[in-house]
Fold this sequence. Notes:
The protein is built from 17 helices and 7 strands. It has 353 residues and is an alpha/beta fold. It folds into 3 domains: 138 residues, 3-Layer(aba) Sandwich (Rossmann fold), CATH 3.40.50.300; 61 residues, Orthogonal Bundle (Helicase, Ruva Protein, domain 3); 93 residues, Up-down Bundle (Zinc Finger, Delta Prime, domain 3), CATH 1.20.272.10. The strands form 2 sheets. A 5-stranded parallel beta sheet has the order 2-3-4-1-5, sandwiched between helices. The chain has a two-stranded parallel ribbon with strand order 6-7. The longest helix has 19 residues. The radius of gyration is 25 Å and the shape is elongated.
Amino acid sequence: xxxxxxxxxxxxxxxxxHTNGAPANYExxxxxxxxPVFLDDIVGxxxxxxxxxxxxxxxxxxxxxxSGMPGIGKxxxxxxxxxxxxxDAYKExxxxxNASDERGIDVVRNRIKGFAQKKVxxxxxRHKIVILDEADSMTSGAQQALRRTMEIYASTTRFAxxxxxxxxxxxxxxxxxxxxRYSRLTDGQVxxxxxxxxxxxxxxxxxxxxxxxxxSAEGDMRQAINNLQSTHSGFGLxxxxxxxxxxxxxxxxKVQAMIKSCQEQKIDDALDxxxxxxxxxxxxxxxxxxxxxxxxxxPSLSEHSKLEFVxxxxxxxxxxxxxxxTYLQLAGCVAKLCRLNMKPQLFATPKNx
Length: 353
């Protein structure tokens, strides 16, 4: 097998594109084009990836559940592990099913069971692999039907589940699997990968453009790369303003100005900023989540103010998620933020003489 191109090589030489047999003039999404092929190339979660490398070396893969946020490399890790374990037999010895496939009880009883019974020539000590992506969206009945299948065919077939929340997998399946948890990627890891892809594709970018990609992605590598490609295709230059046009979320600078007005108790200025964002067509959810992200990282806010601001924003976010998505909710939130730094005496009821 070809040795993995490591991340260090990628940093110095530019990372290797995988075209998967596409025509020369066909532009693959960069997420697929630069998807890691070997475990050495996976960004972040180094301790968990090291455990997968040991499994790849020893060859005895247990049933496993990988859980974590979207876009941090769960499915890619399983595919890389399968590729390194099975080599040339990868295509016929791996069954991959995700949320877009029908995964009811009938599929478990027929398709998965049929695959488990299929005879495949594999290297000694290797097993066929069933990959169930987004397994937390499988029905409880389908998960129950998997229990016996996993036990009966354990000698020839191993199961790998990828999910956002492992508690959505029923307890009997969890007890049969090794559970690996992936944490969100750090901003530094996302930036490093974006620089590699930008260099490989000859993308023009500014520092604030890369910062905007990281801010909007929140540790989701897939979203960061998609936004990089979309901005490059749409505008040519990856700058902060262009990124926020593509992402279509409120510009943090405008939201920061609004929060600053709240901090300085300038209710009229804060409401004017809010009205401007509202008139641009942003939803209540977009505005309140950007307010949260900006408040978290705003250096001019004291710790106490930051805690109180996040608390009020959290309550408003909860009401918006419950369905009350009006401008009035956001205006009420802004008014409460302005009130937090005002002296309590200003709100005391005047006593009659």
